[in-house]
DNA sequence: TCTGAGGGAGAACGTTCGGTCTCCTTCGAT
DNA sequence: ATCGAAGGAGACCGAACGTTCTCCCTCAGA
């Protein structure tokens, strides 16, 4: 999918371009930033952009693809090979909470993107759907391994909590959001016996 | 706030304008639709738009204000004066679920809007925050009346489920989303004893 | 040594953007 | 009867949009 340099790997200008696009798209949205902003901050010329990408849309898709890969790495990194399955779920939840608490958090890149691309047939919209499908399946499998039944309902519940936490994380107090989220995940794991903590 | 006709109420052109803007903004986003589209579909002229609104931004604010009023009406309408407090919560949840299931549902107008206006100082962003604050307080009060303690934590939990449901409602199967949401609300009300239904 | 891709610099393309303007008509209230 | 707001029709503005183009330089691989 990524058409880098003919001879070998990424190309420095392309890396700078994609990195800058990622930072700006995530922080400010997609439709509201023009290619001029991106090429300026990436310190490349207009021609360089269009040598590596067919247009802005492909840049957006590359941005989401990078975010997708980052999240996959984050999740596989959070799982411990010899831990209890429930602890893998907790680790994933903790990783999500850490992201929400981190400075510069601006919500879920995919939920933000899909808000700007409502058309279900649009490539960007489809990329979001594909990512979410993978995430749901991954979480469901993790919960099933942890013995939570029915696993698919639990997976949907987990994703719903996550979506709500990601959406509210940059609109409310992130600490309270994370507390609520982790609490919800815990009661999902223990079957609702975690209503003790404030 | 609404500067309608000098002599009396709304003015028909203004109503058409706001209705069209509401429909298009909700269905397609804000930045990606221009004023030309709106004045064309509202069948008014350019001058008429700028006679009733100072610019596009004020039109966006009016759109969100209308959505806010609609939701307030929906919630006060869902509450029954002589019902048990928990049933008021259930009624609100059911109203939300009905919205998600309805055709043309495209997520939460406020979450969608704030994804396009990340700047916390922007009037549109602030309008979203104000709406969400009202909603959180309203739900928290309802839950407190129902005897759910601590009410503020329960309110945040409810809002988190709602946000997740609204976000996923137009990306997954709405039926499953609603089922998951209502199930989550029920277990919030009964203290986690609602893990029986599939 | 040559060749061709990568990249810089920048002009230019046509389109759309949000917004302002003038001119004319309708119509209700004073 | 008249005055002024509401509205239609449409020209117009400068700016930004995404995109394509030419020209030149550099540098690594064949």
TrEMBL record, chains A, B:
The keyword DNA-binding applies. It comes from the Bacteria. Residues 11-71 form the HTH tetR-type domain. Pfam families: TetR_N (PF00440). InterPro entries: Homeodomain-like_sf, HTH-type_TetR-like_transc_reg, HTH_TetR, Tet_transcr_reg_TetR-rel_C_sf. Keywords: DNA-binding. Transmembrane segments: none annotated. Residues 34-53 bind DNA. The keyword Aminoacyl-tRNA synthetase does not apply. This is TetR family transcriptional regulator.
